[in-house]
Amino acid sequence: MTLTRYLPILLLLVATTASAADDCIPCHREKTPAAVRQWEASAHARAGVGCAACHGSDHDRIVKGEVSVDAKTCGRCHQKAYDRHLASRHGMGLHSGWGCTRNLPERDPAECRFCHEKGSAKALTGVQCARFLKQSSEMGATGCNRCHSVERSCASCHTNHMTDLAIVRNPNVCAKCHMGPDHPQWEMWQTSQHGTLYASDGPSAGPTCQTCHMAGGDHDVSRGITMSSGGTPYPSEKAEPAREEMVTLCSRCHASSFARKELDRDDAVRTQSAAILKEAEAIIWDLSDHGLLDPMPADRPPHPLRGKVLVTDGQMLYEDTSHIERLYFKMMKYDFARTVKGAYHQNPAYTHWYGNAELKMDLIDIKAEANRLRERKAGGAGLGASAAPTTEMQIEERLKALKNRVSRGAISEAEYEKEKATILKELPEKGR
294 with 325, same domain? Predict the structure, then answer.
């Protein structure tokens, strides 16, 4: 084989590359020289994929910001990677951290394209994030969308014009989003035995994020995961095959029995931690049922998705709330997540001291604050949660709280009637 044989093909490739970029390069070599250099060194340039192939040729629309190179654009050539990406959690990254902005002041109308096809009023998804909707447009763009744009932007990981796979094989590329108080997976990995082995002797000794979550270059980063991002276990029909996938993956380095035992132990940590969280949540709802939150939802700005009601699920806010709810937000969003994800990432310090210890101390703080609120309502007389009321007004308050519980489905109608009868027996003689 000689180079001469392939010379016509090489010349055609060079000619195609030049013609595809000729209209853009002269100007952009001056205005955006780094982008040009990156493209010239890329696999796209070598394959003759010029600027117009991705950006289009309508320069006016490009300048106005009406044209974006999104994941769908990349999917025209990289169909398999695109399909696998859409099937993963990255494929729901934008909408899980986004929300319809039409009612927000100073909104950017260009954002409509994230949820609507051009010319259509039908939304592509009904998922919205309450915390995003509470932010300023600047905070939303910088503090939310820089990570959550991963759904529609391959450049989130691959960068805009470079195609060197060394970039996306470096675990640091994951750290941009997967770090911080609510999901510090990168820090967990970096300071685990896996991360230490990698830092000492490279990927042959220690696995990276990509080794476990993108094995073989698979763009479905959700393979092998058995719970939602909030820590809720998947149903068995979904969880069991995912667990087998993860055990198979771990078995590349470990005995499958060892991997299964470790993952089963992590499941137990998740279950135990969820029970602690549930106990704290019940305390907050009980305070709300008795009108003891300060302020109550009716007395503060409405939740952007639910209105003036108590919200303690994944749409919970960290602003316009009460102090005890703020404690619970930290408990759920930070400490529960660190405990559970620390366990699955084989990091004992995150599992225990950054996670479990904080989780349990959160419960102490929440119980103390609940007692303070109850005592304040009782006029500082030291009336605890279990003290029996003696006045008709107190009986009425308990009945109202009981009605609140059955209305929101916390207890059944039968349980409601039974507890109601018990409370009514405590009425003073004159009130009977």
Answer: yes
Say yes or no: 354 and 396 in one domain.
Answer: no
Buried b (16+ CB within 10 A) or exposed e, 44-62: bbeebbbbbbbbeeeeeeb
- For residue 6, the model assigns a pLDDT of 44
* Residues 367-391: tens digit of each pLDDT: 999 999 999 988 754 444 444 445 7
The CATH number of the domain holding residue 263 is: 1.20.850.10
Domain, as residue range, for 419: 392-431
Under the banding of pLDDT at 50, 70 and 90, the label for residue 429 is: low
The answer to whether residues 301 and 353 belong to one domain is yes
Tell me the C-alpha distance between 278 and 372, whole Å: 20
Q: Please say if the pLDDT value at position 186 is more than 70.
A: yes
User: Does residue 278 contact residue 290 with C-beta atoms inside 8 Å?
Assistant: no
Q: What is the pLDDT of residues 91-112, one digit of tens each?
A: 887 777 777 777 777 667 777 7
**Is residue 245 in some structural domain?**
no
Percentage of the chain surpassing pLDDT 70?
90
End position of a domain, from candidates 124, 153, 182 = 153
Asked whether the predicted pLDDT for residue 11 surpasses 70, the reply is no
The band of 154, judged by pLDDT with boundaries at 50, 70 and 90, is very high
pLDDT band at 22 (very low <50, low <70, confident <90, very high): low
Whole-model pTM?
0.85
Of 91, 90, 51, nearest in space to 173 by CA = 90
Please check whether residues 14 and 119 belong to one and the same domain. no
What is the model's pLDDT at position 2?
45
**Rg of the chain taking only CA atoms, in angstroms:** 28
Query: In this structure, how many other beta carbons lie within 10 angstroms of the beta carbon of residue 237?
Result: 7
State the total domains in the chain. 4
Cα-based angle 372, 376, 379 (whole degrees, multiple of 5): 140
Q: Tell me which of 153, 174, 207 is where a domain ends.
A: 153
